[in-house]
């Protein structure tokens, strides 16, 4: 008997299986068959009713040590990146392992409900107690059955700027943290920033780890540490294993320099991880008008063959008072902020938050295919564009063939004379979205 059978489902275009409804059979936690009709009984059958069956969502850039701490010990009044960093510095001495773990676990509950089953979180190591590291190592164990949680050793206050950051980063890696992190633009000088990139790249190479740097999260067009990151990635043989997160300064760079930089990023096989929700709210704060959006050059990076992923970054913390673990919200904002409204580009944002994000984390391609793990999300939408447009309800979240979260379909009851009594938002799209 099959573990699970889903019938009448549409798969993403990226699956290469067309747009006609299909059935998906699951046996022993893996996809056993994908076909128009599948015979045989199953422990559970789900009728997708022509809706989209998607790979699960992935977030390649988050700060779980700070999540859900909004208002502790106070609010970020200016809304700026620097006040957020200062506020986090006030909160760090007050942290306990228990409190960090509890907030992180609550966030993971929210993530599961949203079909978010893989997260890379940066963990601040500029705390000699390594409180957040200890807490999130324990959380990683607890959520392992349903979330791939990847930890980055992140010297928030600068590898060199903070006197014990380097030693703490090494301790964190020795404790089992997965990825080497850094923040070169926050060092005291451009030279220190470049030196930190070199040292961190060498450290990642020596330890056989991935590298993910907060890079040029600034409105300053002369913040060009990503150029050094690309060069060091090649020198240290980290191609495909290194990421530049944010890359906000590229928004403000002149086109000539960007035309030189982007091919270097592509040559280094560097993953680019902008964070649309946060970049457009933290950047441009010193501008009057016109005000910069601060989001990196996504279309140009894509055109050059760079793997562009999209991160959430923050949820209800010192830097961002909103957020809901919804990667479709991230995709939705990217479309508006770039902007990119071609049908190809809008559908691409769904691919970004499912496939590209996992590639940036060094995880296997999650495309739904026979033999792959049965990790899936059934969405109240007919295709990828509609999923992003509606930030579609997650009807069922499936891990290894087991339904681990369910949400009723969104449906409104109407009492308008002469009109339908119920309304499904996914049923009102023009034919172009069908």
TrEMBL record:
SUPFAM superfamilies: Composite domain of metallo-dependent hydrolases, Metallo-dependent hydrolases. Coiled coil: none annotated. Gene3D superfamilies: Metal-dependent hydrolases (3.20.20.140), Urease, subunit C, domain 1 (2.30.40.10). Pfam families: Amidohydro_3 (PF07969). It comes from the Bacteria. GO terms for biological process: cytosine catabolic process. One of its GO terms (molecular function) is cytosine deaminase activity. PANTHER family: CYTOSINE DEAMINASE. This is Cytosine deaminase. It comes from Albimonas pacifica.
């Amino acid at each position: 008997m099959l573990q699970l059978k889903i019938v009448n489902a549409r798969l993403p275009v990226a699956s290469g299986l067309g747009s006609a409804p299909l059935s998906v059979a699951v046996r022993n936690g893996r996809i056993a068959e994908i076909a128009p009709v599948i015979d045989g009984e199953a422990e559970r059958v789900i009728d997708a009713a022509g809706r989209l069956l998607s790979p699960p969502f992935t977030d390649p850039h988050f700060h779980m040590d700070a999540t859900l701490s909004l208002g502790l010990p106070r609010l970020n009044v200016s809304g700026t990146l620097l006040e957020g960093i200062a506020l986090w510095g006030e909160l760090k001495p007050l942290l306990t392992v228990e409190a960090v773990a509890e907030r992180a676990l609550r966030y993971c509950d929210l993530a599961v409900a949203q079909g978010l089953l893989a997260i890379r979180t940066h963990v601040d190591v500029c705390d000699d107690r390594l409180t957040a590291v200890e807490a999130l190592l324990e959380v990683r164990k607890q959520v392992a059955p349903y979330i791939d949680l990847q930890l980055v050793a992140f010297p928030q206050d600068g590898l060199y700027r903070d006197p014990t950051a380097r030693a703490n980063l090494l301790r964190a890696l020795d404790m089992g943290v997965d990825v080497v992190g850094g923040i070169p633009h926050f060092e005291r000088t451009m030279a220190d920033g470049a030196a930190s990139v070199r040292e961190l790249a060498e450290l990642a190479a020596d330890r056989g780890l991935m590298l993910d740097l907060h890079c040029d999260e600034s409105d300053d067009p002369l913040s060009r540490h990503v150029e050094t990151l690309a060069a060091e990635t090649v020198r240290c043989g980290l191609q495909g294993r290194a990421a530049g997160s944010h890359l906000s300064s590229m928004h403000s760079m002149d086109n000539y320099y960007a035309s030189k930089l982007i091919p270097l990023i592509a040559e280094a096989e560097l993953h680019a991880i902008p964070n649309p929700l946060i970049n457009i709210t933290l950047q441009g704060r010193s501008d009057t008008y016109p005000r910069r959006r601060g989001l990196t050059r996504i279309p140009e990076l894509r055109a050059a063959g760079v793997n562009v992923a999209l991160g959430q970054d923050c949820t209800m913390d010192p830097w961002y008072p909103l957020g809901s673990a919804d990667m479709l919200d991230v995709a939705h904002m990217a479309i508006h902020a770039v902007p990119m409204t071609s049908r190809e580009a809008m559908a691409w944002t769904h691919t970004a938050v499912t496939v590209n994000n996992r590639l940036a984390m060094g995880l296997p391609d999650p495309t739904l295919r026979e033999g792959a793990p049965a990790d899936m999300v059934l969405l109240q939408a007919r295709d990828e564009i509609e999923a992003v447009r509606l930030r579609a309800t997650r009807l069922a979240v499936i891990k290894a063939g087991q339904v681990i979260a369910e949400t009723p379909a969104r449906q409104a009851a109407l009492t308008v004379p002469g009109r339908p009594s119920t309304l499904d938002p996914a049923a009102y799209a023009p034919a172009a979205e069908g």
